[in-house]
Amino acid sequence: MHAHDWPAGLAPAYMHWRGQRTPTLFTIHNLAYQGVVSLASCPELGIPEHALQQEGMEFYGKLSFLKAGMAYASHITTVSATYAQEITTPAFGCGLDGFLASKTQQGLLSGIPNGIDESWDAATDAHLLTPFSIGDWDGKAANAAHVRQMFGLDASSGPLFAVVSRLVYQKGLDLTEAVAEFIVQSGGQIAIIGRGEPEEEQSMRALARRFPGRIGVHIGFNETDARRMFAGSDFLLMPSRYEPCGLSQMYAQRFGSLPVARNTGGLADTIENGVTGFLFDESTVASYQEALTRPSRCSPTRRCSMPCAAGPWPRPSTGARLWNPTPNSTSNWWPRPWDRPPDSKRQGPMPSSTLHTWTHGARLLDAEYTRFALWAPDARCVSVELADGQSLPMQPQPEGWFMTQARCPAGSAYRFNIDERIQVPDPASRAQLGDVHGPSLVVDPSAINGSTRSGAAGPGTRR
Length: 463
What we know:
By secondary structure, the chain is of the alpha/beta class. It has three domains: 2-111, Rossmann fold, CATH 3.40.50; 137-305, Rossmann fold (3-Layer(aba) Sandwich); 355-447, Immunoglobulin-like (Sandwich). Helices cover 25% and strands 19% of the residues.
């Protein structure tokens, strides 16, 4: 089951709470939209008390639908590799950076960039006044003239900049507003299309009134106009403060328009600086304006040699750091049997002859937290019982596994409860030493003399 963003965040959670074993994938498209509600909503939503913890969907005294999806899904993805790294830091983590850093350390967070619709092709696009292909400068110029006419801009041979965007603070439109005079005084024009926050819409309208014939704005959005703007523009402006993936830059590249964008998220992954666009690092007017001067410093021969300056690419984002799945790239998404011996029982304790062929079912993550795993394919529900009396439900995983993690330092006692009636120790615990009736102990593998394998996953980071 594949769920997207906070509106679907409770779906993996409900499946987990009801003991359903179907693998779930949760994709974050924008971490800033979290679906936060009051704790008073718990009874109405059917949220169990054990979910109101840091490892569950509790979020600073409230409930987060987004965090629920991340907490209970089998695996989490987001829409670019760089954004997957950024959201584990305080600058981009929206209060969830520690939680997501822990997921990353467990191999449960990946970044896969969005793709684009390859029917958006300048050579065959019926929406364009004049379809064109690589090297067809007359076709490109005809589309530029059409865009200028659409936006009431003066006829010009100067560069045409496009903004195709939601009009929200995230997109850095205030930075474009600040550099607009520089662009106009340098002989450029700007065409802007989009809708969003009322304040941003008003600012864009004011910009058009300030520079009539040089800046044009259409509040709203339609696909036909977007295609024409990509085809007619020389550059696309994307000074985003953060950008999980972004699609406009890839469409612009396909239509022979070079993006000028902030070096963040999916923009960093899909634009090769100085080759398929221009990137700047700081979310400041000075950094943005410096990036705008770089195209003019390229010789005409250099600009014409850029892969997307000569027209549409055969494939979008050639040369960018896109996700290329390999047989091993998703191998750690779903928990796999840890060297399960062929004669192991289908649930409960293992024969002592095979006891030490397994890695740890209790895997120490850091000084306080442990990840628990039990292979019990015939079970309906499994929980882990800790020495302090806590009984924590374990999440069903593919291939018969159940897993969870809890505050449980090395040396703590625990045991598993299967279907609320069978109590078993951990069949993989080296501390058990064949005593299948007593509890198991969380073991620090580094403390075992002569051990050649380690169950520890390294220090963890918590919110």
